[in-house]
Amino acid sequence: LDAVGMEGVEPDAYPHRFSGGQRQRVCIARALATDPDLVICDEPTSALDVSVQAQILNLLLDLQQRRGLAYLFITHDLDVVRRISDEVDVLLRGTVVERGSADQVTHRPRHAYTRRLLGAVPAVSPRERRIGAPLTPGSPTAPKGAEQAPA
User: Fold this and answer.
1) Where would you tag: which of 10, 45, 91, 139 has the fewest CB atoms within 10 A of its CB?
2) How many C-beta neighbours within 10 Å does residue 53 have?
3) What's the sign of the alpha-carbon dihedral 66, 83, 101, 139?
4) Among 37, 34, 10, 38, residue whose Cα is nearest residue 22
5) Please, which pLDDT band fits residue 39 given cuts at 50, 70 and 90?
6) Environment class of residue 17 by beta-carbon count within 10 Å: exposed (0-12), middle (13-18) or buried (19+)?
7) What is the DSSP secondary structure assignment for residue 44, as one 8-state letter?
8) Separation CA 38–CA 50 (nearest Å)
9) More confident of the two residues 142 and 12
10) Cα 109 from Cα 20, distance rounded (Å)
11) What DSSP string runs through 92-115?
12) 100 Cβ contact list (under 8 Å, min separation 6)
């Protein structure tokens, strides 16, 4: 618990007594308990507000440096991908459609689906928004299960 910034926290406390960020830190501590080389993180920041999300990402990066960890990060949040990843695979319906460095995939995407994902990232201003057509239900790049509406 100390390694994840939870010094002095009662280890037997009930989960409802913790904030979302504290709960995530406890989950990270549990994952580190066996001193792994690889930690799989499935949407570790999806339910957190932006400031807590930044704290958790900073913690993960710090732990990576101090412990020599590797992460397999599963997320739909491309801002998180830009921040935490070295290498990125973009999957569409379970198939890798693009692979490359985080910089290449997020700044020079080759696949239409990747471009559309990047275009869906909210931006502070329209000028900062990436160009990308919306994901049309029934299109080859639409999420699985999105059916085309009858004409």
Assistant:
1) 10
2) 21
3) positive
4) 10
5) very high
6) exposed
7) T
8) 25
9) 12
10) 33
11) ETTEEEEEEEHHHHHHS--SHHHH
12) 87, 88, 110
**Pair 18, 26: CB distance under 8 Å:** yes
pLDDT at 126: 55
DSSP string across 56-85:
HHHHHHHHHHHHT-EEEEE-S-HHHHHHH-
Tokens 């549990």 sit on residue: 30
Reading the block at residue 132, the tokens are 């990308």
Q: How far apart are CA 54 and CA 35, in angstroms?
A: 24
Q: Report residue 65 CA to chain centroid gap.
A: 19
Average pLDDT over residues 82-95: 93
| Coil, helix or strand at residue 91 | strand
* pTM, 2 dp: 0.72
